[in-house]
Please model this.
Amino acid sequence: GAVVSQHPSRVICKSGTSVKIECRSLDFQATTMFWYRQFPKQSLMLMATSNEGSKATYEQGVEKDKFLINHASLTLSTLTVTSAHPEDSSFYICSAKKGGWDSNQPQHFGDGTRLSIL
Amino acid sequence: AQSVAQPEDQVNVAEGNPLTVKCTYSVSGNPYLFWYVQYPNRGLQFLLKYITGDNLVKGSYGFEAEFNKSQTSFHLKKPSALVSDSALYFCAVRAPNTGNQFYFGTGTSLTVIP
Model:
């Protein structure tokens, strides 16, 4: 077990559009989910940590109003890129972890969403 | 500050030969160490982790990694490489008592040559 599903896998849209990406833990409850951004041939950059039922914690330099995160249940977190522009084009990956805040469990990743803004 | 270094951007190895992907870390306290693999346009797949105990950790697909505290390293190894092992490999570290944040290395692209 420990399957994380991310949807959609790819989205292409016009500049100014808002895009919602879903991240679901299919067979476990994820108290904490994470959103990453990955540029070509680079590592993952943590954008925010999402805790069920509370506000997300954003990393320095990440615009909260630009990247809206909602973690309404133990199995679903969403990332909405508001008024997307070409510079927001990237590969977005979510992950989820079993256990509590300080659990030493590994993160389990979704397959990512390729976002292309025209 | 916590950090992870993967000194090699690219590793090439012939099929059937042993492979090593290097990782060194800097963390306060005893680290939790992880290896992940990423295939094109996919998320990361968990390979193995070191939390405590034996320094040699065995993971998925025949991979193993050795924790070396004195050298602050956690190199990924496999005795005999397969072409299907070609992918991007990430080392990650989490310091205890720092909550959830993982720190990822910059990744190493492994190419296994038939």
